[in-house]
């Protein structure tokens, strides 16, 4: 298993902790960077190369789709997943148009690991 630098952005601290625990259990070498919103995520990745990002859709300020587009400008090879309970077709289409994956909530180990390693 190759180590990764994984960005986890969610305004819910509990969700971030859950995703981090799932990742750390699967790969102790993975570096996990947490942010509670899009601006914080962009600041924390200024001098860091990320390989994977898991982004909540609904956050205060910048939503996950806007953040995804900004991250893709900076990290075009990054694998990005949009974590959301919003199953509207419009959201799925926007995610698909950006070339990012859709990870349905609730958060489960299978869904997170399937996205990262699948």
From TrEMBL:
The keyword Protease does not apply. Keywords: Phosphoprotein, Two-component regulatory system. It holds the Pfam family Response_reg. The modification 4-aspartylphosphate is found at residue 56. The keyword GTP-binding does not apply. One of its GO terms (biological process) is phosphorelay signal transduction system. Residues 5-118 form the Response regulatory domain. InterPro entries: Bact_response_regulator, CheY-like_superfamily, Sig_transdc_resp-reg_receiver. This is Response regulator receiver. The lineage of its organism: Bacteria, Pseudomonadati, Pseudomonadota, Gammaproteobacteria, Thiotrichales.
């Amino acid at each position: 298993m190759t180590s990764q630098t994984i960005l986890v952005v969610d305004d819910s601290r509990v969700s971030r902790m859950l995703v981090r625990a799932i990742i750390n259990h699967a790969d102790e070498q993975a570096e996990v960077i947490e942010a509670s919103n899009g601006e914080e995520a962009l600041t924390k990745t200024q001098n860091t190369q990320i390989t994977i990002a898991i982004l909540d859709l609904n956050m205060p300020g910048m939503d996950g789709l806007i953040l995804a587009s900004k991250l893709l400008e900076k990290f075009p090879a990054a694998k990005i997943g949009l974590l959301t309970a919003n199953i509207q077709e419009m959201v799925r289409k926007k995610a698909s148009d950006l070339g990012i994956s859709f990870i349905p909530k609730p958060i489960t180990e299978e869904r997170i690991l399937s996205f990262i390693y699948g």
